[in-house]
């Protein structure tokens, strides 16, 4: 084989999307076989007495699947979310994992390994969708070369490998990217429905609406908003009518808890994760409104003012009126929301990573993704896995590096916001 043939075949291998999907899926299937999620019950010595405890191993370790499995068991026992117990997320996710449990239960008892593996594989399917959407959006925004490169970069980052086995953020990222792709292609109805489905999975995808209003004509924006908001309001309204106060508690729980894992949490002295209590507390709606931490030093209203003013300032500037401007504006909205939020969830890196790559398809953009990935896993689980003797609270020698990690991540997000602002106000067609 000649040197000339080698030079021509290597790029063709990189450009082969099917090959990338085979490698992406194949690697994850092997990991799923080697590191199967499983849990087993043991007795641990606590204060001189042996108490029951559950040990988890495999890909799902440190994630939320064991926590969700307990709710799936409640549903199987006839206790329904939003009516009999409160659940902190909109209904799509709990419907999915409860439905998977029910289907698997048709053939007998459902053990954690089978259930968690099924969910991990379903999230992997969504992640393949993210890979394909990065190819589609990257090529549309930046040309064929970027469309080829970005999925490869995404494929070798840590977060897309780990988080499908920890939580459902992969599905949220897919719905966001799909809604953006359809919006740029002029398929507003499909985009609006996907944004609604995303909002019913997790609230973040509703942030597409400001971009729709800023970059498209009023009639189109109204139609898009009516579809998205209409679907969301019908579903959530039905839940409220059916579940009453328990449904209210479910939908408001995320906004009631104390700050966590953010710069605001450092100010408030809250040194825990944002995890809620287990299923045993969920049958009392009042528990959803307990902060489970210190009250905010800076009230939410005061904290909101500078971010609202920053958003209004960007909204009223002369912005580039092309597809890159739309994606940059939406990404800036998401980053400002994450900076404003009273807490930080490590899984948000799954949503941020493709948005960063789509806006900054450069070495600097890749390095930002890499550093954020590293900081994400240093914070959790590295720091928090060392808090067993304090009941899950960062203390002692961990406080300084923990605070430094949060400040560094916040600084990176602030710098990213500045970069996105420069990008959305870059020279070009303006309005």
Report on the architecture of this protein.
With 431 residues, this protein is mainly alpha-helical. The chain has one domain (38-424). The chain contains 18 helices and 2 strands. It has helices at 3-15, 17-34, 65-76, 91-105, 112-142, 144-155, 158-162, 169-184, 188-199, 208-215, 218-243, 245-256, 263-268, 300-315, 323-340, 348-359, 363-383, 399-424, and strands at 38-46, 49-57. A two-stranded antiparallel sheet has the order 1-2. Helix 15 (323-340) runs antiparallel to helix 16 (348-359) and helix 16 runs antiparallel to helix 17 (363-383). Mean pLDDT is 92; it is low at 1-6.
Cα-to-Cα separation, first versus last residue:
55 Å
Strand adjacency order, main sheet: 1-2
Helix content: 55-70%
Strand content: under 5%
Q: What form results from the Cα inertia axes?
A: globular
Number of domains: 1
What is the residue-averaged pLDDT? 92
Classification by helices and strands:
mainly alpha
Uncertain segments: 1-6
Oligomer: single chain
**What count of helical segments does DSSP give?**
18
The largest pleated sheet is described as: 2 strands, antiparallel
Radius of gyration: 22 Å
In N-to-C order, the SSE pattern is HHEEHHHHHHHHHHHHHHHH
| Record field, number of beta strands | 2
What is the fold's blueprint, element by element?
Layout: H1 3-15, H2 17-34, E1 38-46, E2 49-57, H3 65-76, H4 91-105, H5 112-142, H6 144-155, H7 158-162, H8 169-184, H9 188-199, H10 208-215, H11 218-243, H12 245-256, H13 263-268, H14 300-315, H15 323-340, H16 348-359, H17 363-383, H18 399-424
Antiparallel strand pairs: 1-2
Helix pairs in contact: 2-5, 3-4, 5-6, 5-8, 8-9, 8-16, 9-11, 10-15, 11-12, 14-15, 15-16, 15-18, 16-17, 17-18
